[in-house]
Specification:
Chain lengths: ~300, ~280
């Protein structure tokens, strides 16, 4: 422990607890507690009232009665719509994460190999799109993919096709949108990892007779494991609950659980079922979130020591 | 770098990747100057969609709401994020530190539909429990955005704090400065570039958010993304192209300025370190 860290402890404890408690209480109150309330409401029953659900705790002859209804969860299990929505969200998340990795890895690798000055500019060019509106970048693809959009117009002008190909509102459009929107989140952690690699390792491998692709598979790829995990989690976890992309680029048959939750909440106004949908999604994602958290804290500790 | 030969396809991948990232945005910008109502059929140069955009009262008031929320969010997130970053990098383990770390990283990846729904349920429950009216509006959107953005700001600032040379802080303490003075006189100026980029990041994240805002907003507080989303659902409109161009150009300019200051500060710091090293 450094003197600075000790200094914090020596300085009167009030400051220390003040520093901890403000962000801690904010997160406890506005990040952790809402999940507990959603959990509670997922055991309630929809009602035509404001708020539109029954109380799970009520009083009978002066005694409190806790009534947990599992019917929302049974309802999710019983209706194949929900199960296939979960499965298809997971499938879309896995496939699009792999596509992001295939596109993003070579990009991150070549940026990490650049001269430092060029490296910073290339990195800025990767990050810049993620600063501009997500919604607008997805909207751009509507104009490109629609029946009289840029791609169809171009293909018809050069005479390759006679009638427009249906691209918008298809699963392909959803995959394109996801890879497009999430690519920077894949490239950044990969780059952060790859840029730290020691080139002498590759030189040693080549001195010992390894071909470049062998050296890559045996040296670079295993060393970049942490970056791959961080990047994949950063893409896959939010994609499972994605709403905007399937809504704007997908068709009615593109089933994703984020969209189902949205409809359950805004169109059917069934808050308890929407909460149950969210809780099941949270349970599915908890292991990936823990893996991400481990990778993230290891990254920070690595730099601290 | 003498091993670049090993990866001669690098430029191809990089070029392809950048084309993929930038061509769609470029198409939005070009077609925002299209005179034709059908966005993708070019019929001549015109700026009439910009005029139409600036006469759209709904769009303008939504933009004003969004900009104000983004400003308040960015300022709050930087303060809370700096405190959280000091806690994670400078404090010895305390009871509940693991939970704290988890609550900092989870918002980075948590699907927004889950966070948004849960926060709304919190606000509604608070209203019924306390009898107070937690009116859904700018205030609730601000709370939701700060919760999301402070996680990103904390990551940016912690990584800066983690690579900071502690000997500067230690020297100041040896000379008798107390912790609070050391923080404001030594630490804060050094991490200032990270604070600026954290502020910009929080501002753009807040300006961009559709899902959280849709859940926790009330009838009187429509944000810009909500307005854009409802008109984009009706189909492609040249007015949105005009708005997109303004946003892309505005945010890129801010981003490049922020990046320039970061890079300059970094260069100066490196130079000072070298200077200090040669004087030893």
């Amino acid at each position: 422990m450094s003197a600075v860290t000790r200094g914090w402890q020596r300085f009167f404890p009030g400051a220390r607890w003040g520093l901890i408690s403000v962000p801690y209480l904010w997160l406890l109150f506005f990040f952790a507690m809402p999940f507990l309330i959603a959990l509670k409401i997922s055991f309630a029953k929809a009602a035509i009232a404001m708020p539109p659900y029954s109380d799970i705790l009520y009083w009978v002859d002066g005694f409190p009665v806790l009534k947990l209804r599992g019917e929302n969860y049974l309802y999710l299990l019983g209706d194949s719509l929900y199960i296939s929505a979960y499965l298809s969200s997971l499938k879309i998340a896995v496939i699009s994460t792999l596509c992001c990795l295939l596109v993003g890895y070579p990009m991150a690798y070549s940026i990490a190999r650049m001269e430092p000055a060029a490296r910073n500019i290339a990195l800025l060019l990767v990050i810049l799109p993620s600063w501009t509106s997500f919604l607008i970048r997805i909207y751009a693809w509507v104009g490109i993919l629609k029946p009289n959009g840029l791609i169809n117009n171009f293909l018809m002008n050069i005479g390759l096709i006679d009638a427009p190909i249906k691209m918008l509102h298809t699963p392909i459009a959803v995959y394109i949108g996801i890879v497009y929107a999430y690519l920077p989140f894949m490239v950044l952690p990969l780059y952060t990892n790859l840029v730290k690699h020691d080139h002498r390792l590759l030189e040693a491998a080549s001195d010992l007779g390894a071909k470049p692709w062998q050296a890559f598979l045996k040296v670079t790829l295993p060393l970049s494991k942490a970056g791959i995990i961080a990047g994949c989690m950063l893409v896959a976890i939010p994609v499972v609950g994605e709403f905007v992309i399937p809504e704007m680029l997908g068709g009615p048959e593109t089933l994703m659980i984020g969209r189902v939750l949205w409809q359950e909440f805004f169109n059917n106004r069934d808050w308890p079922v929407a909460s149950a949908v969210a809780m099941v999604m949270l349970v599915l994602l908890i292991v990936p979130i823990i893996i991400f958290h481990r990778a993230q804290s290891k990254e920070l500790e690595g730099r601290l020591s | 770098m003498n091993n670049t030969r090993g990866f001669r396809w690098g430029w191809l991948f990089l070029g392809g990747g950048f084309l993929f990232l930038y061509a769609p945005m470029l198409s939005l910008i070009i077609y925002s100057f299209n005179e034709n109502r059908l966005v993708t059929v070019w019929s001549g140069f015109s700026t009439k969609w910009y005029t139409a955009l600036f006469q759209d009262e709904q769009m303008l008031s939504a933009a004003w709401v969004s900009l104000r929320i983004a400003f308040y969010t960015a300022c709050t997130s930087v303060v809370l994020g700096t405190m959280a970053a000091m806690v994670t990098t400078r404090l010895r383990v305390f009871r509940g530190k693991a939970l704290f770390g988890a609550m900092i990283t989870a918002p980075l990846v948590m699907p927004e539909v889950i966070t948004g729904l849960s926060l709304l349920l919190l606000f509604v429950s608070l209203s019924t429990w306390t009898g107070l009216d937690f009116a859904r509006g700018m205030m609730t959107i601000w709370i939701a955005h700060v919760t999301l953005c402070m996680a990103f700001v904390t990551v940016v600032i912690s990584s800066r704090l983690a690579e900071l040379d502690r000997s500067l802080e230690e020297a100041a303490m040896d000379l008798g400065a107390n912790r609070i003075k050391v923080f404001f006189v030594i630490t804060l100026p050094i991490i200032a570039p990270a604070l600026i980029s954290g502020w910009l990041l929080a501002f753009t994240l807040s300006l961009d958010d559709l899902v959280l805002a849709s859940f926790v907003s009330g009838p009187s507080s429509t944000t810009l993304p909500m307005q854009v989303f409802s008109s984009a659902r009706m189909g492609v409109s040249p007015k949105i192209n005009a708005l997109a161009t303004i946003l892309i150009v505005g945010v890129s300019t801010l981003g490049v300025i922020g990046w320039y200051f970061m890079a300059r500060a970094e260069r100066n710091r490196q130079r000072e370190i070298q200077l200090a090293a040669t004087q030893d």
